[in-house]
Amino acid sequence: MIAELGQVFLSLALILALVLSVVPLYGAYKNRPALMAMAHTLVIGHFVFALAAYIALSIVFFNHDFTVTYVATNSNLLLPWYYRLSAVWGGHEGSLLLWILMLAGWMLLVSLLSRSLPRAFIARVLAVMGMISVGFLLFTLLTSNPFDRLIPGPLDGQDLNPLLQDPGMIFHPPLLYMGYVGFAVAFGFAIAGLLGGRVESEWVKWSRPWTLMAWAFLTVGIALGSWWAYYELGWGGWWFWDPVENASFIPWLIGTALIHSQAVTEKRGAFPAWTILLAIAAFSMSLLGTFLVRSGVLTSVHAFANDPERGMFILGFMIVVTGGALLLYALRAPRIMTGKGFDFMSRESLLLLNNVFFTVSAAMVLLGTLYPLIIDMMGWGQISVGPPYFGAMFVLLMTPVVLLMPLGPFSRWGKDELWRVVFPLLGSLVLSLVAALIIVAWLDAWSARAITGWMGGLWLIFGSFHYLFDRQKRSRFGLPRHQLGMIMAHAGVGVFIIGVAMVESATYERDVRLTPQESVSVAGYEFTLLEVVSVKGPNWIADEARFTISKDGEVIQEMAPQKRLYHRSGQTMTQVALRPGLFKDLYIAMGEELDAQSNAWSIRIHIKPFIRWIWGGALLLALGATLAATDRRYRLQQRQSATEGVDASAASSA
Amino acid sequence: MIRLLLPLVTFVGLIGLLIIGMQTADERKLVDSPLVGRPIPNLVLPQLHQPAKTTSTADRLGEVWVLNVWGSWCQSCRIEHPYVGRLAKESGVPVVGFNWKDERDDALRWLSQFGDVWAYHMVDYEGRSAIDLGVYGAPETFLIDHRGIIRHKHIGPIDETILGDLMARIQRLQQEVGA
Amino acid sequence: MRKALLLTAWLLALGLSDQSLASAIEPLPFRSDVEEIRFKALAEEIRCTVCQNQSLADSDAPLAQDLRQELFVMIQDGRTDQEIRNFMVERYGDFVLYRPPLASHTLLLWGGPILLLLIGLLGSVIIIRQRRALL
């Protein structure tokens, strides 16, 4: 009964989305305020039904209704309640529903927070987002309905994939989707700008906080995925350049370029067409990511169940959305040079360079990810493109970015002098080089990677703080949030780089054979295996290896990695034990039982220096973007444009 | 105008690539062997039924033959078993088994259950020789010509269509022997 | 259609044989840290052919175990990294290398981004020259 209700809610949401994608647009075209205003009501209804459908699926999971196919394949009587609720997005169908709910949520927020924007403009934005929702609702209802029945239902369900029975996996997909879907807002604003003919800086101003928030979510989502990959399965890596990871990284790179080009276009009106293109690209790459993950076109470690039919649907949807947007762009993008001029040494030029490096990086990741397809199509054989390629290329493309980044904030718009920008930073530069050498010597981590990593990272951190102090001296009121946010984000990149450099250059990793009461010493730590015991969980049993870790003869920690066997699926899984630390993680993973008689096990021990800095840096990036998005001036702007913008926009509507 | 159309053109290209990629997704999961067109490595391995006796891949020099990789643990080998039988019977060339990463008792039991249709079996329990053959998943079927060159490799189970294809290829290889 | 079905079943079976969701952890008797580091580095850049995009280092599949054993023996025998890579390529093709070789068919892969970067930088110079005129 509840499943059928859920289906009805989804269908109702579809109907509202259909109306939403037509009526307000027509209203904007004919300048009928009543029709335009309908958008807000429709958006509320659309959200309510999407939420109701989502709740229906959660209830079905909670109640163990195995007559619903999706529940039967992704849940189990023994599954604890919290994983039953997160299992809603554990598979393809439910994750689409989550995607739809988030899109509806973003639309609701746009509708509530942008009441002050010109009516016609916001009607167009919501209509475009409504069209996107139509696509995803159709996709769900036609190819991937989570409410499909399985009659007669089994007595018990197959389990949720054990990989997903983990706190990291509860939060990773929702945040990632918030980012993906969030780019739909920037997309909607850009298309509304094109439709309305108001392609000057205004739509950019309005969409900036939305883009920043979407980007912040995407950043945290990716970081959580990386954190999860690190401790899951005992891999111990934090990034694998797998197609599915790349699928989330490409929109992130484009999004980074978009944030910076929006700054130029808003402040100086310089690159309106390019900014529109990036907004289209950021969302299109999110769609492409969805396609790559769900179509089975590429081989990946962590893809959804593959289905060519679904792949074709997303492809068709992409053709409509991206193809339509690019066609509109070709027809209506501004062709004349707008905005103020600038010189070689200027903030505009530096941001332009930022855009070159980030878009080329995105293109590089896309090329590498799809190259196996290209080479197969040309009949040139089969190759694999993996971490060595991406790593080398990415470092190559990002080195100039790191070198130039601190110059950006110091430079002036329009025209500046190189020495005026560089001179105040010389102190930071020298300081970072000296400090890097001292730190590397102190850590005894001599390697080219560690040294360059520390130099680059500290250069960004010192450069950012330098700017902070410089500004604070001059202004009486302190820094506005958008500047603080930028400083925080740039320093975050520095923290991230240091983390990466240390992890990649100074990780200890050893596979050992241990029997109870035996110990091994790794990097000054003594790992002693006390015993291997059996433990029981709600839906698994496990062998647990109990360790004590001592340093200089003193016990500092007890750790207990497990090797779990999940009852229902019969899958075994490694559960690692971690001792996280700001400067190093201790990490133990269990392998196989090597000898039953002596109870010998293969054990992997990692010492990962500074790995928390990788995610810490990402968190700083996201916090910085959030801070910038909540700057006072965006709220002020909106109030101002409320008074002046309404009639102007109605008049200019095409 | 051209500059404004460029993104659209690029996008169309990307979509084309993805559509073709969808069609070839399954094929691309099969890794082509670089050994096709090259001489089969000289492997000397014990026989399954008489472990004391060894045979070599070089023994078959001068005739067209088939090497079929299987294991009792391999589900798909059971599926292709009847077709291997027909291949052995109808092609008129020796079909040699390559028993890979198995246990001898399991392999013998499997053969007595489903029928031993191969001429004889070479045994590689360590998997060392299989690496030299570039084997990566059972079942795999190699066609070797009279000069000892691997001419074709089929990855995955044999079915009706594949059987026909293999027969035709064997026929062509045998014509080469006469020529 | 039937062929496609069979193929899918076979691919599924390959996947299912890898029931254990775990990375490969095996203590090997290395003679020195240098050997162990070389082993890890090579195992990470060689692809496991039966797996879903995993390296030899990360996979628990039986073939990956055999190949790691082979890799270990070759390192003990004092073979160079390039010899070891060649050994793998001769048997499994370029597909096993996560670092694609620089050749005519990978020119676009290695050169493409560089070319794009040059175009981007050149374009920037042109744009800035135009904008300068507005100053």
Give a verbal description of the structure.
The complex is a heterotrimer of chains A (654), B (179) and C (135). Chain A has helices at 2-30, 33-62, 69-74, 81-86, 92-113, 119-143, 167-196, 202-231, 243-268, 272-295, 308-332, 347-377, 387-404, 407-410, 418-422, 426-443, 448-474, 481-506, 611-629, 632-652, and strands at 508-514, 519-522, 525-536, 540-551, 554-559, 562-566, 572-575, 577-579, 584-595, 600-609. With 654 residues, chain A is α+β, with helices and mostly antiparallel strands. Chain B is built from six helices and seven strands, in the order ααβββαβαβαββα. Chain B has helices at 2-23, 25-28, 75-91, 104-114, 128-132, 160-178; strands spanning 44-46, 54-56, 65-70, 95-100, 121-124, 140-144, 150-155. In chain B, the strands form two sheets. Chain B has a five-stranded mixed beta sheet. In chain B, helix 3 runs parallel beside helix 6. The mean pLDDT of chain B is 92. Chain C is built from five helices and no strands. Chains in contact: A-B, A-C, B-C.
List the defining traits of the structure above.
heterotrimer, A: 654 residues, alpha+beta, 6-stranded antiparallel beta sheet, 4-stranded antiparallel beta sheet, 20 helices, 10 strands, globular, disordered C terminus, B: 179 residues, alpha/beta, Glutaredoxin, 5-stranded mixed beta sheet, two-stranded antiparallel ribbon, 7 strands
